[in-house]
Specification:
single chain, alpha+beta, seven-stranded antiparallel beta sheet, 7 helices, 7 strands
Length: 207
Amino acid sequence: MYLPPQFKSDDRSHALALMRDHPLASLISTDDASCPYVTHLPLHVEEQGNDLVLLGHVAKPNPHWRYLQARPQALVTFLGPHAYLSPAVYPDLKRVPTWNYLAVHCKVEARLIEEADAKDRLLKKLIGDHEPAYAAQWRSLGEDYAHKMLAGIMAFELRVTELQCKLKLNQHRPEAHAAMRQAYATGNQDERALGEWMDRLGIGEKS
């Protein structure tokens, strides 16, 4: 993605926080006609030593897993909070609107997971991310039912080969920061989240 230096974050903890707080990702590959093919899906983020791995699955009828099998290199994107920014935050009128947002892009190498027990372990990690209490219900559904459900999905591991994190928060316009903080403090959910990230990054703090 286009990544001006003022918006680039090399702090891996920022990327991890965004991916875990906003796990619905876009998995982007090419289909057999060389056109982009996108699936929106939740991904489990796992650190394995220095490596970063994303775990997920699609329904068997979704051809995306076949595209990953044929062409393992893919792109995964995560979009965090985002909001319109009015030029009213500036002290003068010769300004234009913009859009602030937080995003992570991961180049990945895919590996399919076809063995039932491995798929079950992957599902339990996703369950742990979103509804740990459901794990007991999943176990109680019975082995036959579980195997039927597992046979209906194709799971995969996406090993991250390149990580980009963009935090676009008007960092290079300090004259707007005080008004941005005020606007975000009373804004919608995304705007309040952007304000929290301003706090986290120390943007607009008084010295």
